[in-house]
Amino acid sequence: MKPIYLVKGFPGHPLHPPLTDATIGIYTGATIFGVLSALGVSEQNMAVAWWLALVVGLVLTVFTAATGLIDWLGLEKGSPMRRTATLHLLAMVTATVFFLLAAIFGRDDYLASEVTSGSLTLTLAGFAALTLGGWLGGTIVFVHGVRVLDRPEEPASQAISPLPNVEEQRADPSTAGGAEPRE
Hints:
By secondary structure, this protein is mainly alpha-helical. The protein has helices at 4-8, 16-38, 43-73, 80-105, 107-112, 117-142, 156-159, 166-171; strands at 9-10, 13-14. A two-stranded antiparallel ribbon has the order 1-2. The radius of gyration is 19 Å and the shape is elongated.
């Protein structure tokens, strides 16, 4: 098995999208916890959950960003999909910066079990950038078709297999030739 599979995933099974789902989910939870705390709903518990979710999201962002960067580097320079992916990258970096600032400046909020308006504003700005970035990421997949194998008749047992078959390797030239293909 080629080492590139560890950071890109197999053809038809890229690593970046499931990591984005987890990261977006955690940041969405942090945003909801922050809003609920600011509204006075179980204020102390929600403030603690808000800050902890931000920290977990930031840790997971490292892996999500690394896999996304690997995918981005493989896109043809100057292509429309690379431009869309660059906008996605910029939106996600912006979101991460806002969430990082919210976690840094919100640490005292966490210790006091409250979410102040400044920390909540940073969180909401991060969530707005995250939403834009997620929309752009969807565009990369669903409009540009990056790392998608269009094979609706593929038998379920082959479609869900984590090991690439010969056709999948041919569909993703950057990873072809290094894994044990299934027939």
